[in-house]
Design a protein that fits this description.
Layout (H helix, E strand, L loop, with lengths): L9 H19 L4 E2 L1 H8 L3 H9 L11 E2 H11 L6 E6 L3 H8 L1 H5 L2 E8 L8 E2 L2 E5 L3 H8 L3 E4 L3 H14 L3 E4 L12 E4 L2 H17 L6
Parallel strand pairs: 3-4, 3-7, 4-6, 7-8, 8-9
Antiparallel strand pairs: 1-2, 5-6
Helix pairs in contact: 1-4, 2-3, 7-8
Length: 218
């Protein structure tokens, strides 16, 4: 099946892991086939949107037919490049960095923590999932030796840009940034911002909007 990658919307790419997680659950429950309408209803999205998302990657089934769950799981894992383990490093061993390092789902999805770094001497030497915190100055050596391409930044906003530049010089080509600051990186580096407080603010706003009722909305 061909992949029409010329203009795949970012929103589609963001939904692919959601589809994969749900399909893996169906697979574990012994479900062999599922319709687009059923899958979309379980995910609370429009079925036409789901089919359009899948159309970018070949459709996965003939028109009018249901999807084979095991095949769809295999194809989505292939599209998301989850066939082989992906190593990553974390810069920032505070509470958020520790939480990411300890999150078991990343390992289940094939992401392997290769190193975690900080500048705080009180944190250096602590171990998370068997990986010891090292001084940030050692990041380039580990990245180069293991060929790591994915970096996670959970530092303070003030330190984030310098850490990003250190990662780029070391050979990192993808950065998952949790620091609430806009990073400047080369065009060849893929940047994914994850501003947690922004998401919480947006949720709170929608809650308040719902409580006000339609008569107060513009």
């Amino acid at each position: 099946m061909s992949i029409q990658q010329d203009k795949i919307p970012e929103a589609t790419l963001q939904r692919l892991p959601v589809y994969l997680y749900r399909l893996q659950t169906l697979q574990a429950d012994g479900v062999g086939r599922v319709s687009s309408r059923t899958l979309a209803a379980q995910l609370r999205i429009n079925s036409s949107r789901l089919r359009q998302d899948f159309h970018h990657f070949g459709g996965f089934s003939r028109p009018g037919q249901t999807y084979e769950v095991s095949h769809l799981v295999e194809r989505l894992r292939e599209i998301l490049a989850l066939g082989a383990p992906v190593h990553y490093v974390i810069a920032g061993a505070g509470y958020l960095g520790q939480a990411i390092a300890a999150y078991p789902r990343f390992g289940e999805d094939g992401f392997r923590l290769a190193g975690i770094f900080d500048i705080n001497p009180k944190l250096i030497g602590l171990r998370f999932r068997g990986v010891a915190v090292q001084d940030i100055e050692l990041l380039p050596e580990l990245v180069g030796r293991l060929g790591v391409k994915l970096g996670v930044i959970t530092t303070s906003p003030e330190a984030a840009q310098g850490v990003a530049e250190l990662m780029v010089r070391a050979g990192i080509t993808g950065i998952w940034n949790f620091a609430p600051v806009g990073l400047q990186v080369p065009e060849a580096v893929t940047l994914q911002d994850e501003f947690l407080s922004a998401g919480l603010m947006a949720l709170h706003y929608r809650m308040q909007e719902g409580e006000r009722g339609p008569e107060h909305r513009r």
